[in-house]
Design brief:
The chain has helices at about 15-25, 40-50, 80-90, 105-115, 135-145, 200, 215-245, 255-280, 285-300, 305-310, 325-335, 340-355, 360-370, 380-390; strands at about 5-10, 30-35, 50-55, 65-70, 70-75, 95, 125, 155-160, 165-170, 185-190, 195, 210-215. It is α/β, with parallel strands linked by helices.
């Protein structure tokens, strides 16, 4: 139950991101209610009864952190439980953290909740999924479920999720599960602040301290910075690490070639492209300092991030709007050769074929799945093919 004067937030998804980032960042100012499917019933019941949980923060060392002022309810497919409806009706902000492919499943519930709102008190939904135009696509799905345009009674906005979070199975001390008796834990790095599209929170009497409302030009810069320099770097290093046979990202710290690839990706490609595209909104010094920190964060020995997490669902990460294809195109559009990103893209296709995620040929993945135009983008296809040959040669 919310404390007097406390805002109410609903988070769809009691997973790594919801528990490791959204909960810790929002609860200083908000009561957070988690909604998830029955496989999380034990956790959700505990949240509702105890009003707290534990996640494990990395940094110089690992430390358990207790998060308070939380609750939880189960969602069964095709139903709208009374508790969930009540939480949505009370919510000042709603966050989705369920993964982009699962967002359409939320559309009927959000359409129903929006029907009970008005332009004076809209349902404000912030999307925490990776990708571009996530909020716009979610709004379209909700309006389809509602069978009508929803106007100002529904406001959707994208966010930039900057904190790395993961699930650890069979946690050993000092790592603790979120609730007693669970056989998994959440580990997250210390990184703070949630940039959001300004229009989605405009008019709120109070905005949680972690929320950073940004004007369109600044938000586009933040979004591209995350997509290229965080997601793009993470995916590239994951696929390179997979091909090298290493198990964790921090294993790559001792590999000069891999670290130089990361440096080139961040500085010569992503950095140069972002500063050309967003120079008025993204400061040079701010970005260059970010470059150094993100490479250290991704390869942090305390976070000990597994390569397997980075290559999981790799075909989805090869979608046209996702981190590798989007990054190759964004860098090339600024007149910069995306050699490091093309290496990551080539490695990702090799990984996908080896892992059995696709039966398409290497070239067919580029054209049919990534949707490169063989005529207009032939130069990029040739570059990716050259990087495939370089990877094969070792």
């Amino acid at each position: 139950m919310a404390r007097t004067g406390e805002m109410n937030c609903v988070v769809f998804g009691a997973g790594a991101l919801g528990l490791g980032f959204l909960g810790p960042e929002l609860t200083p100012d908000c009561h957070v209610t988690y909604l998830d499917i029955p496989t999380k019933a034990d956790l959700l019941e505990y949240l509702n009864r105890a009003g707290r949980y534990v996640f494990n923060e990395t940094g110089l060392s690992m430390r358990p952190v207790e998060v308070r002022s939380v609750g939880g309810h189960c969602l069964a497919e095709g139903t709208e439980p009374r508790e969930a409806s009540g939480a949505l009706d009370a919510a000042d902000l709603v966050f989705t953290a369920v993964g982009e492919p699962n967002l359409p499943k939320l559309a009927p519930l959000l359409a129903s909740a929006t029907a009970r709102r008005s332009a004076e008190r809209p349902l404000r939904v912030l999307c925490a999924e990776n990708g571009v135009e996530i909020a716009r696509n979610l709004r379209a799905a909700v309006e389809t479920a509602a069978g009508r345009a929803l106007g100002r009674s529904l406001l959707t906005g994208d966010t930039v999720m900057g904190r790395m979070c993961k699930i650890v199975s069979d946690p050993q001390p000092p790592v603790q599960p979120p609730a007693p008796g669970l056989d998994w834990a959440v580990v997250a790095e210390p990184f703070f602040g949630i940039p959001v599209e300004q229009h989605a929170v405009a008019g709120l009497a109070k905005v949680p301290s972690a929320i950073e409302p940004q004007r369109p030009e600044r938000f586009r810069a933040s979004e591209d910075e995350k997509m290229l320099s965080h997601n793009g770097l993470h995916a590239t290093l994951a696929c390179i690490g997979y091909l090298k046979g290493v198990e964790f990202f921090d294993d790559l710290r001792g590999d000069p070639r891999a670290m130089e690839m990361g440096r080139r990706l961040l500085m010569d490609e992503a950095g140069a492209a972002l500063l050309k595209k967003h120079g008025a909104a993204l400061g040079r010094n701010e970005y260059l300092n970010y470059c150094d920190s993100i490479l250290h964060r991704i390869t942090c020995p305390v976070l000990h991030d597994p390569i397997a997490r980075g290559v999981r669902g790799i075909m989805r990460k090869l979608a046209p709007w996702e981190r590798l294809v989007y990054s190759v195109r964004t860098v090339a559009a600024q007149g910069i050769e995306p050699m490091a990103f093309a290496t990551g893209l080539a490695a990702a296709i090799i990984v996908a074929r080896r892992a059995g995620e696709t039966t398409l040929s290497f070239d067919a993945v580029l054209v049919e799945h990534c949707r490169f135009d063989p005529v207009a983008e032939g130069h990029l296809l040739r570059l990716v093919e050259d990087r495939r040959k370089a990877l094969a040669a070792g």
